[in-house]
Amino acid sequence: MINKNSPVPIYHQLLEYIKSKITSGEYPADILIPSEREFSEKFQISRMTVRQALNNLVQEGFVYRQKGKGTFVSRQKVEKRISRLNSYTEEMIERGLKPSSKLIEFEIIKTDSSLANILKITENDPIYKIKRVRLADLKPMSIESIYVSCELAPNLNQTVLEKSFYEYVNSNIPDPIQYADQSIQARLASEEEAKLLEIPPNSPVLSIDRTTYLRSGKVLEHELTVYRADRYKLVHSLFRND
C-alpha cells in the first residue's frame, strides 16, 4: 500500500491511504484511528513521516486531535451552494442527513426602524422573531434567527417551525420565492452560540446575513444564520463574461 520506490512522497501516500479509509466509511466519523506508532510499524516508515501525513489531514479537516486521546475522524463538511436558494431541510435531505429543529424563541415583537427598512414595512409593525437551532442526524449545525412580517404570514405557529419554513411558504403564500441578497463573513462564536452549537468557546463560525424576496418584490424574511465552520464549506460557481 506504500510504495517506497514511487516518486510520490511517502507521507502523501499515507495521507491518501487514510483518506480512502475515511471516504469509504471504513473509518467512520468520530472513530479513533491508529496511532503514529501503529502506522509507523505497519508500513515500516518513520513516525515523522506519519506525523506529517496526519498534520496535513488535520489541516484539510479530515481528522481532529484530542490531547491525551489520539486522532479521530472528523464529520465531513456539508457543502452549501451559496448560488442556490434552497431551504435547510432540502439541503440536508439531498445529502442523506435527517434534518430537525430545536425552537429557541418564537414571539411577536414590534419592528424597529432598521428591521422595518429591511422588511419594507412600517416601524412598530408586528413581526415574528424566530430563533432555531438546526440539526442534522441530531447534531447541531447552525443557528437561525428569522424575522417575518405578521401580515405576510398571519397563521405562522410553533408547530410549523418544527418543519421547513419554506415548505410553509410554498403552501400558504401564493407569491413564490424569487431571490435573495446575502453577505458572508467568518468570525468567532459568542459564548451563547458556542453553547447552542456544542463547540468550544471562540470556535470559528460562518455567518450569513440574508434577505429573501418574493416574486412581487415583497420581502419574505430577514435571516441571520451562524454555521459551524467545522461542519460546513461554502461552494459557489463562477462564470466569466467575455
Give a count of the beta strands, DSSP E runs of length 2 or more.
Answer: 10
Uncertain runs: none
Question: How many H/I helices?
Answer: 7
Helix content: 25-40%
Largest sheet features: 6 strands, antiparallel
Shape: elongated
Assess the beta-strand content as a share of residues: 25-35%
Mean pLDDT: 87
* Beginning-to-end CA distance, first to last residue: 47 Å
SSE topology string: HHHEEEHEHEEHEHEEE
Give the oligomeric state. Answer: single chain
Tell me the strand order in the biggest sheet: 4-5-6-9-8-7
Rounded to an integer in angstroms, the radius of gyration calculated over CA atoms is: 22 Å
Q: Helices and strands: which structural class? A: alpha+beta
Question: What would the keywords be for this entry?
Answer:
242 residues, alpha+beta, six-stranded antiparallel β-sheet, two-stranded antiparallel ribbon, 7 helices, elongated
Write structural notes for this entry.
Helix 1 packs across helix 3 and helix 2 packs across helix 3. The protein is built from 7 helices and 10 strands. A hairpin with a 2-residue loop joins strand 5 and strand 6. The mean pLDDT is 87. By secondary structure, the protein is α+β, with helices and mostly antiparallel strands. The longest helix has 14 residues. 27% of the residues lie in helices and 34% in strands. The protein is elongated. It starts with 9 loop residues before the first helix and ends in a 7-residue tail after the last strand. The strands form 3 sheets. Strands 4-5-6-9-8-7 form a 6-stranded antiparallel sheet. The protein has a two-stranded antiparallel ribbon with strand order 1-2.
